[in-house]
Amino acid sequence: MTARPLISVVVPAYNAARFLGETLESLTAQTEERWECVVVDDGSTDTTFAIASGFAERDARFRALQVDHGGSSHARNEGFRASVRGTSYVTFMDSDDAWLPHAFATLLERLEQDDRLAGCHGLAELVDAEGTRYAPGEYAEAGRNRLGLEGRRLVRWPLDRPTTFDVLVNGNVLFPPGLLLARRDVYERAGRFDESLAGPEDWDMLIRLSRFGDLAFVNDVILLYRRHDANQGARPTTPLQAWRVRCIAFHSPENSPGQQRRARQGWRAYQAMMARQRRGEALTALRERHLREAYDRSGRLLAHLWRYVRGYPLPRIVREPLTW
């Protein structure tokens, strides 16, 4: 090991043999070399563990860990527990994505400028199974389009502002997870990943981290997000799953009084924004004589107005703290 590790990298990997080598190579290419990596083989039936073990044999900064198959959140939790306690920062990387060489140095530089920050994140570009970039700029622009609470409205967040609780409680703007480098002590305070969530567990964790500090935003592409027919990161999050995270976040006893007030304001601002959108869609459909669509959009408009008046999401889900 070249130096005491500063960053712990946890890579959950399930039948990841096809791309894992490229992911780990992108780690060895980092200009910031003070890291350790725990690859957690989540009960794979292919050569995932052999690939991870091969990297560990060649480079002492890697470790390979095998666990029974329990899903990505379980693997992340096991990897965090196995990582070096003395590291200052942690990141969780999907086993098919790849960092650009300056990723760690860029995020670390911003984090070390302000110890009040909980973490720092950048942007990604899309690549296909062969590693070829496509739709250039599209995914990075989506990452810039953060909606934050300003007054009583949700507005596009300026690029010089960090990603805050006020942004994240209204939607996930930070994916895949390898975009984020966060302080280890904040992860320890936030608690483990919720293994009962399937799909939006990353969003849930981001909200919890943001209770302890802002996430600095770096307007720079630092990661290649691979889209292919088998990647776990591309699995769809159902509306019901996303709604559950929204309910958990809103009703959490871990919110400070100020965070609870802003969650309520953000909820109403979101419902007002969606009501305006549904109204426009209903009027357009009516003008074009699409009566069934106009009726559908009008019904959705009324639903958003009722949620606005009610002032909170249902059901009232109160989750016990997910301590380590």
Any key phrases for this structure?
single chain; alpha/beta; Spore Coat Polysaccharide Biosynthesis Protein SpsA, Chain A; 8-stranded mixed beta sheet; two-stranded antiparallel sheet; 11 helices; 41% helix; 19% strand
Q: How would you describe this structure to a colleague?
A:
The chain is of the alpha/beta class and about 325 residues long. It is about 40% helix and about 20% strand. The strands form 2 sheets. Strands 3-2-1-4-9-6-10-5 form an 8-stranded mixed β-sheet, with helices on both faces. A two-stranded antiparallel sheet has the order 7-8. Strand 7 and strand 8 form a beta hairpin.
Strand content: 15-25%
Any idea of the CATH class of the largest domain? Alpha Beta
Class computed from helices, strands and strand pairing:
alpha/beta
Query: What can be said about the biggest beta sheet?
Result: 8 strands, mixed
Give the number of helices: 11
CATH architecture of the largest domain: Alpha-Beta Complex
Residue-averaged pLDDT: 95
CATH topology description of the largest domain: Spore Coat Polysaccharide Biosynthesis Protein SpsA, Chain A
Widest β-sheet, arrangement of strands? 3-2-1-4-9-6-10-5
Helix and strand sequence: EHEHEHEEHEHEEHEHHEHHH
In CATH, the homologous superfamily of the largest domain goes by the name: Spore Coat Polysaccharide Biosynthesis Protein SpsA, Chain A
Number of strands: 10
Query: Which stretches are low in confidence, meaning pLDDT under 50 for 5 or more residues running?
Result: none
Shape: globular
> What is the domain tally?
2
Q: Give the termini separation.
A: 28 Å
What integer value in Å does the Rg equal? Answer: 21 Å
Measured as a percent range, the helix fraction is: 40-55%
